[in-house]
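$ ./design --mode recover --in tokens.txt
reading tokens...
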């Protein structure tokens, strides 16, 4: 429950082990796979050639991270498979393509801040209150575990169990 072996409990105990919705939980639940949905938060048009590079970028990121886990404390995965299963945009005109060849496209579904969000019926997460994984049976595409949120004007990046911004 602590961050680092020498961290005083009073300073670092955020009950992180009680939350079962971390990336590692998704990887184990999905047997070494993570599904991403991309939230395109920009007024610039996204080309299909750029969009098609997101998966390889994430695969490189996870391969570099997983390199340190292979063989450690019974970590069972030599590779983490990444799938881009959808894109969310404010308007269809922000995508260069119209078909689902890169995943399901969600248009005009905005969160409370006006940011495009992927179909929430497809969001697969561990519901700590219910003690089980969310029901994605009404998802019309493929469920996603985490979102990639390229944001126009963001100078850095951050994330949580919901995704990477």
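writing sequence...
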């Amino acid at each position: 429950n602590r961050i680092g072996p020498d961290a005083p409990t009073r300073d670092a105990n955020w009950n992180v082990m009680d939350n079962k919705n971390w990336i590692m939980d998704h990887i184990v639940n999905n047997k070494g796979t993570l599904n991403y949905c991309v939230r395109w938060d920009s007024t610039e048009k996204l080309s299909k050639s750029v969009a098609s590079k997101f998966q390889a970028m994430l695969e490189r990121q996870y391969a570099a991270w997983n390199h340190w886990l292979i063989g450690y404390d019974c970590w069972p995965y030599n590779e983490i498979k990444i799938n881009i299963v959808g894109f969310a945009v404010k308007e269809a005109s922000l995508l260069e393509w119209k078909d689902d060849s890169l995943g399901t496209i969600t248009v005009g579904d905005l969160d409370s801040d006006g940011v495009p969000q992927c179909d929430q019926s497809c969001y697969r997460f561990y519901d700590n209150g219910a003690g089980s994984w969310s029901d994605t049976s009404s998802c019309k595409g493929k469920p996603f575990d985490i979102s990639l949120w390229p944001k126009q004007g963001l100078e850095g990046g951050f994330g949580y169990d919901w995704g990477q911004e």
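exit 0
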